[in-house]
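Lab meeting minutes (informal)
Scribe: AK
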Amino acid sequence: MVATRYKTAFQLYPYAKVDAQDAAPIRHPVVIVGGGPIGLALALDLGQKGTPALVLDDHDGAGLGSKAICFAKRTLDIANRLGASQAMVDKGVVWNVGKVFHDDHKIFDFNLQPEAGHRNPAFINLQQPYFEKYLVDAINRAQADGAPIEIRGRNCVTALENHGAYSTLTIETPDGPYQLEADYLIACDGARSPLRDMMGLSFDGRVFEDNFLIADVHMKADFPTERWFWFEPPFKNSGQSALLHKQPDDIWRIDFQLGWDIDREKELDPARIRARVDAMLSSQAGYVPEYELEWTSIYTFQCRRMEKFRHGNVIFAGDSAHQVSPFGARGANSGIQDADNLAWKLDLVLKGLSDDSLLDTYATEREHGADENILNSSRATDFMTPKSEVSKTFRNAVLELANKHEFARPMVNSGRLSVPCNYAGFELFGDDALNGPDGTRPGMTCPDAPLDDGFLLDHLGGGFTVLAIGTEGQNVLAHGVEAQAISLPSTHDTLKTRYLGGAKQGVYLIRPDQHVVARWPDFDEATVKSALARAIGKV
């Protein structure tokens, strides 16, 4: 039997017996374990490129509860390329403004996307079950168009035998066990990763001595659609910090910092939770509106990662590879960047267009991304939860300064919010021969820009691109991999600002994950071809 570990919000891939369960083990190019956001995004990306992907999940849909709720512009840009973002943005609560309070007074507010000219907002709040549902909807559409993607629900991996060149999985189902084989096995099975345990791999890092209560509250309230964060909030029994955020369907996420030495069962008593929520709402609204507790949980901050994300033909992504505190929205957003980085590399390797060693660059680039996220997450946690009187005195002095002086506000850390990873200096990236803007140098992700027929990122697709602005480019072929040319006039002000700066024209080579490989003032076929070869690991 397959154990039910949690209730599901949506049944997205109900169990159905397949012929393979009664046959000898069948080999699959890619098997993804875990049907959460990262596993689904990876399968969708691979399938759209024509590479078969099989997803195994021990449940049949998205787990109940909001879990990840804050999805960044970079994640939405990736989802847009995959054909899944519009439903997310339509359903999600769009926000750009955040406010930071100390006790009962506002210190400052911030706007995450003050400039126009982007398809997607800086952030949306959307419960994770919806995010997963919209990815599955996109997978269903892709399957109807012939994409080789399969999801098997209620298929629980119980054993793993690695043979070097491939892996054998034993899978439990409602109809009994069976086995299959995988050329590449991708572990997207969460922070408690059973696959990681089966391989005896460590998950090292830091567990912070603090507990946080999450309460998803259903209510109609007139609070603005903003992120409100309190240091030492004025309402009773709220702990050292609190957070208020709106989600779709009139659901509000409330977080309370409880401290370390708590009785978890006592703290999850609905009456005790309601007392805390009542105090917050009456403090902010002057009364307690009617509400219902939809979902509650207690979590502990943890910042951990595997030493290596790749172990031969087994590759780890998302929370199975790295874990950060939720403040800053770096968990799911970072995991989606894992999938975005891995998909095109795995596709080229399986098609014989790149060497297997290209997958090593997934590990080095995303290990760098994880270190960056863990650093920011750890700093935020240390600022939010000072562990000594000296640290608390310093933290409160910063808050007092920030209340009066703008220079101190960047030092206030209520969770540095997720930003795209910069791979500058890594081996797949090349020349920066254009005296262009800092934000589009090699290693950076491409910023969006409005065009006459939509937005720039719509034109980049899922392959390599030669982007020529104010000049002409050509398709370039290197080792069987083609980069498609797009030539645009330099008359679009936002495009010019973000990609040319003071230059009159420029040429960019862009990876399938929309990171800039190299840039030049003019198109030269041999130069671009060399950069393309480097980008696919052929140099």
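Next up, CB showed the second protein from the same session:
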Amino acid sequence: MEIQLQNFTPAEQATLRLRALYEGAGYRKYRCSRFEEYALYQEYQRFLPDAQVVTFTDLDGKLRAIKPDVTLSIAKTAQPGAGECKRFYYNEEVCRPSRESHTFQTIHQMGLECMGAVDAATQAEVVRLAVQSLAALQVPTVLEVSHMGFVTGLLEELCVPETARPRLLELLNEKNAHELHAAALAAGLPEDAADALCGLLELHGPLSATLAAARAACRSEAQRAALEELQALQNALGEESRGALLDLSMADELEYYNGLVFTGYVAGVPRAVLKGGRYDYLMQRFTPGANAIGFALYLDELERLAAQTDAEMPEKVWLNIALPKGRLGDKAYKLLAEAGYKANEDYNDTRKLVVENPDAGVRYFLVKPSDVAIYVEHGAADLGIVGKDILAESGADVYELLDTGMGKCRMCVAGAAGFADDESRALRVATKFVNIARDHYERRGRDIDIIKLNGSIELAPILGLSDVIVDIVETGTTLKENNLTVIEEFMPISARFIANKASYKFKYRQMCTLLDKMKEALAQ
């Protein structure tokens, strides 16, 4: 009986195609046990995507864990000999915590690993298979590459303090130029060094053109070596590198990856479906002198494509923009209208949930301010305008492209006039911004008890419910009228322009055009 692939889900179709691809390239299937001794993950915790794992005591009395990662298990047992390169592929499930549901979830991964004597040809082979893996999905895709050595080379050349690097890398990954420059100056870097770090955000686009721009921006031998490696990769891939993007601001997971890194995106899926790169440091923990490169496809993400057909793929590129209801949304829309993106009808004068401008290629929809970042992160909106307080509290995985300067206020710690902190006990903090407050005091190393409130935060210290509050302060009038005072200001708040990470890859040109016009409107 002939098998009809169209009767399978996108993930099932991908599994069949990828298995044929990897076996045809000489990769041998690796079968993992569902459980591993917890000691493995405890020792190599910094190489895991999340430190939380599900553990249990087995019948033999040993503490075991439900597998949160496949690569660690393969690296532990591969043990390639000198000059040997072992090639494996896998089709496994791992168990990891979900930030959205706050529970553990099973994630279906399929990928491959090359371990041992990994040379330039082997590296190109793996990236080629990543390109072919995306092509096997038979939907529009894009592969984005980078090199950790370009970023770390710049950090070394600029003598960036080790303590400042995590925050600067975090801002780089968010494409948050406005805060990156300020954080670099706060770390003691001179103006030209801060500009050089922000310049990394400009090194994004088609592979060939971006390589040329990056050469002009080189400041160290380490950076030049990284670009030579990327050029060699492009030469080896030939026509298969056509359509690939280069983003030299990619710098996440520096603990794990040490050289070439790459990420794959699928149109219609809000987050990356493929991640991979060189992880020599991890491999050498198990086999001294060995190198490694590999990637994983997150097949569960492909289920989002089940309802899509080729006929339903839109021909026109639309930018879907989520605006917050209320005064901030009105100000944001006014700014976009002044930038040339006015809708054909005023959303305040209609009961429609979505208004648009087909000529400009934009759609607007109003949502609760606290939901804007959620719509953008999950791909229902490509872009959004949201307050920094809501963005920081949600922890949404989005790009923060612009500080509009609208709705300025500040996040503060406030308490009774003359308040003195008793450090012999936990500080009682009342707030509706639980994550912001926790992060602030963790950075200071202060033990706190958080009391979550949803309104009238100022009442808490007055009635003895808390010692202090963490809340937004605009003018300070409410605090003064209740005999409270600002103890500390620690976060400037304003409206930020954010983008979905996958949409940014597929609609980069349209987003940049809109962003430039918004900057021009703000400058007027």
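CB comment: Residues 60 and 230 are 49 Å apart (CA to CA).
No objections, moving on.
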